């Protein structure tokens, strides 16, 4: 099943919604602000980008329902405005305007997103539904592409995992990191394929000299998938689901056929994908500082459970129905409380990558 059909965050503004349970993701946006502003100041050439048009066009890919996307856009606009002043463009008759495109999966709660738009925003807003692993915009129409804590979602479950007779059949698990070598290789191959599609699509959509800024949730270089803290917490969730299957609460067959399509890449894996694609230069690649907002989440079993539920509830609902959700995540919270140190901060990172589109 394609990710744009299967992976929206929990919509609305209720207690289990993404809007109320995305402090971790907000922490990543905040941590990237200074580095992102520096990259814009040093790497963005507005005179070239706006030579024939005074509208600066930005896309935020995987925007979800807010409010984090709005904070990210404000950070970008603030940095671009400052750059605009430094380059002396305020002396010209051109008035810089901003168009922002908010993109996410087709079933994303765009109603909630647009109801939450800041009233005092200094940009024109539009929604663009669809998977960012394909083309979303006309050729050479964007100046800046941003995506935060989104590209760890793959486009689909690797094909081999759908075959019960395949050595990649992921029986008894919902996540690949603690599975067989065949399953891990299938996910690594899907990651490589998806990144090539992502970069090819962006290379066509962004103008020469335009920037792509990615805030990535990942794992440190050299860290095995099974040691990544982000993978470990999802592996524990899978064990909770299997425990419910053994009790007959859910179908074990449905568990065997269910896989979460998250791939927490390392900086080196992303660097290799960019270099293989060859259409972008890497202008910045740095680990982000750990802010207290992130630590507050990862040190709290309740907050981990709430955040994981906000990003996966729709997936579980589609596969198993509504009736198991409370029991599953209550059991998950209990298991997390029994392992208070399960999240090792040295085995998980957020990092910023800034790419510049090369001229052919």
Keywords:
globular, Rossmann fold, alpha/beta, disordered N terminus, 43% helix, 360 residues, seven-stranded mixed sheet
Topology of helices and strands:
Elements: H1 3-6, H2 23-43, H3 46-49, E1 55-61, H4 68-86, E2 97-104, H5 110-115, E3 124-129, E4 142-148, H6 181-205, E5 206-218, H7 229-246, H8 252-256, H9 267-277, E6 280-287, H10 292-298, H11 301-320, H12 325-338, E7 349-357
Parallel strand pairs: 1-2, 1-4, 2-3, 4-5
Antiparallel strand pairs: 5-7, 6-7
Rg, nearest Å = 21 Å
Principal-axis shape: globular
Widest beta sheet: strand line-up: 3-2-1-4-5-7-6
Estimate nothing, just give the exact number of structural domains.
Answer: 1
**Overall residue-averaged pLDDT value:** 93
Low-confidence segments, given as residue ranges, are 1-5
Helix content: 40-55%
Number-wise, the strands total 7
CATH class annotation: Alpha Beta
Q: What is the CA-CA span between the terminal residues?
A: 35 Å
Number of helices: 12
What amount of the residues lies in strands? 15-25%
Give the biggest beta sheet.
7 strands, mixed
From the 3D structure, determine the CATH topology.
Rossmann fold
Give the helices and strands as they follow along the chain: HHHEHEHEEHEHHHEHHHE
User: What class would the helix/strand composition place it in?
Assistant: alpha/beta
Oligomer: single chain
- The CATH architecture would be 3-Layer(aba) Sandwich
CATH-level-4 superfamily name: Vaccinia Virus protein VP39
């Amino acid at each position: 099943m394609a990710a744009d059909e299967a992976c929206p965050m929990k919509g609305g503004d209720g207690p289990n919604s993404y809007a109320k349970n995305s402090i971790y993701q907000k922490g990543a946006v905040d941590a990237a602000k200074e580095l992102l502003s520096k990259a814009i100041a040093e790497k963005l050439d507005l005179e070239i980008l706006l030579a024939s048009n005074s509208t600066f066009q930005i896309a935020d890919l995987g925007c979800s329902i807010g409010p984090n996307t709005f904070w990210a856009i404000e950070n970008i606009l603030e940095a671009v405005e400052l750059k605009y002043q430094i380059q002396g463009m305020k002396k010209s008759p051109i008035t810089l305007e901003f168009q922002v495109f908010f993109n996410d999966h087709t079933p994303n709660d765009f109603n909630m997103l647009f109801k939450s738009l800041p009233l005092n925003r200094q940009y024109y807003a539009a929604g663009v539904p669809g998977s960012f692993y394909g083309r979303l915009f006309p050729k050479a129409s964007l100046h800046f592409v941003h995506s935060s804590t989104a590209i760890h979602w793959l486009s689909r479950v690797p094909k081999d995992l759908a075959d019960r007779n395949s050595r990649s059949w992921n029986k008894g698990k919902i996540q690949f990191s603690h599975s067989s070598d065949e399953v891990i290789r299938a996910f690594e191959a899907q990651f490589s394929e998806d990144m090539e599609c992502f970069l090819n699509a962006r290379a066509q959509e962004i103008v020469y000299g335009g920037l792509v800024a990615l805030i990535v949730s990942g794992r440190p270089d050299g860290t095995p998938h099974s040691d990544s803290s982000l993978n470990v917490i999802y592996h524990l969730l899978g064990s909770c689901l299997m425990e419910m299957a053994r009790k007959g609460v859910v179908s074990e067959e449905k568990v065997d056929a269910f896989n979460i399509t998250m791939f927490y890449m390392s900086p080196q894996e992303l660097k290799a994908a960019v270099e293989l694609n060859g259409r972008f230069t890497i202008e910045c690649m740095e680990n982000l500082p750990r802010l207290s907002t992130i630590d507050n989440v990862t040190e709290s079993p309740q907050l981990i459970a709430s955040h994981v539920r906000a990003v996966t509830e729709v997936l579980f609902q589609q596969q198993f129905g509504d009736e198991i959700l409370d029991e599953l995540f209550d059991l998950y919270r209990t298991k997390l409380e029994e392992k208070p140190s399960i999240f090792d901060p040295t085995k998980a990172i957020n990092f910023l990558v800034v790419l510049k589109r090369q001229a052919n």
